[in-house]
Amino acid sequence: MSNLRSAARLHSADPDGTDAELAARFEREVMPLMDTLLGGAMRMTLQRADAEDLVQETMVRAFAGFRTFQRGTNLKGWLFRIQANAHISGHRKRMCRPAEVPIDTVGDRQLLDGAPGALRSAEVEVLETLPDAAIVRALDALPIEHRMAVYFADVEGLSYEQISAIMGTPVGTVTSRLHRGRSQLRVLLRALVDDRGDRA
């Protein structure tokens, strides 16, 4: 995030000091929310590197528009909305171009197997060894709209109105997605518990 601080310094060249004050306020108010944004980005992207890229893009966009942010309103909701828009934009761009895998990251075994799952990140490998990995997988199995509604409501503790603003959908749609997401998650987790019970 030192790039962001460098960008803040470049924007602070205004002689009257307003840009410097804005950059200082941004760093003071927004930077402490980076871990929260990273958690949301992980739920959206499912990959640590992609999540970090999404957070960086969110921070750049937030800094560019910070002058328009109205103090006293919901900063976290504003940032989540920027993040959701950045994710949607990035997703659309990725859908328009074929997936690329650097050839030097593919080993002989992976070429023989042809297994796309063999190219998982180290973070995903570690997550799967944790006791909560099955829960994370169940949450990640939900459709993105349902997963994000559940994440914002149950992990971040946001209100339906805040989620509505972030996702750009009516409150009724948020309620529906949240209900469906929780129902799907319940079924997945029940199957997990039943499966573990059979092994015992």
Summarize the structure.
By secondary structure, this protein is mainly alpha-helical.
Question: What would you say this structure looks like, in words?
Answer:
By secondary structure, the chain is mainly alpha-helical. The chain has two domains: about 100 residues, Rna Polymerase Sigma Factor, Chain: A (Orthogonal Bundle); about 80 residues, Arc Repressor Mutant, subunit A, CATH 1.10.10.10. It is about 70% helix and about 0% strand. It is built from eleven helices and no strands. The N and C termini lie far apart (about 45 Å). The relative contact order is 0.09. About 20% of the residues have low confidence. One of its GO terms (molecular function) is DNA binding. It holds the Pfam family Sigma70_r2. This is RNA polymerase sigma-70 factor, TIGR02947 family. Belongs to the sigma-70 factor family. ECF subfamily. Keywords: DNA-binding, Sigma factor, Transcription, Transcription regulation.
Number of beta strands:
0
Total of domains: 2
CATH H-tier superfamily of the largest domain:
RNA polymerase sigma factor, region 2, helix turn helix motif
Shape descriptor reads globular
In which range does the helix fraction lie?
A: over 70%
CATH class assignment of the largest domain: Mainly Alpha
Q: Determine the number of helices (DSSP H or I, runs of at least 4 residues).
A: 11
Briefly note the structural class of the backbone.
mainly alpha
**CATH topology annotation of the largest domain:** Rna Polymerase Sigma Factor, Chain: A
Largest sheet: none
Termini Cα gap:
47 Å
Strand content: under 5%
Strand and helix order: HHHHHHHHHHH
> What is the multimeric organization of the chains shown?
single chain
Parts with pLDDT < 50 across at least 5 consecutive residues: 4-16, 108-131
